Amino acid sequence: MENNAKNHRDRVQQSWEKFLDPGTLRSNLIACSLFIVAWETFCRTSIDNLHGFYNFGVDPELGESENYRSRVLDRHKSRLMASLLWFQEMGAIDQDDLNLVKRIKDHRNEIAHELPKYLCQAGHEIDVELFGKLTDLISKIGRWWVMEIEVPTNSDFDGVEIDPEEVQSGDMWFLGMLLQVATGDEEEASKLYQQFTEAASKLP
Q1: Entry pTM
Q2: Which of 41, 68, 74, 151 has the least CB density, counted as fewest CB within 10 Å?
């Protein structure tokens, strides 16, 4: 009983220290924000490209194309899962990736719905490993889309050799810039911005 009381006091003290320390609070706010933004970026990467591809030239007032509904949306009631199942069939991701998405989504929902716990309570921390895997998924789908869809359908890339490891999608640029700025690495953020402007100047 005495040990339980001591453990409780220690936990309460750690929680107050976590909340009242400005540096820790700021870091936790940034970590929570980055995880949520990364999740939204992942959803956009997974959904928007497919939506635009199958609805290209379709009047938005007429709704979505039959191709998009039959080849993507009919796979699942969730637009995100329907898109991911399409990517799985195309070989962009596998079942392990889909299982990982479920874990990431659950963690994101817990952060969003119980944010005070992550800011104030000891023992509630952002899963850094999951965050890393989330950014890897964004890169995986982004690179696949560029290499398998954008490059083959753009004649400007005919005869051009492209190293997949050097491919950066728009969402990868966005997340990379966000990470650099959020972590206070202004020098790296400036380099990333310069690389982006140089790459953009070469686009047709």
Answers
A1: 0.73
A2: 74
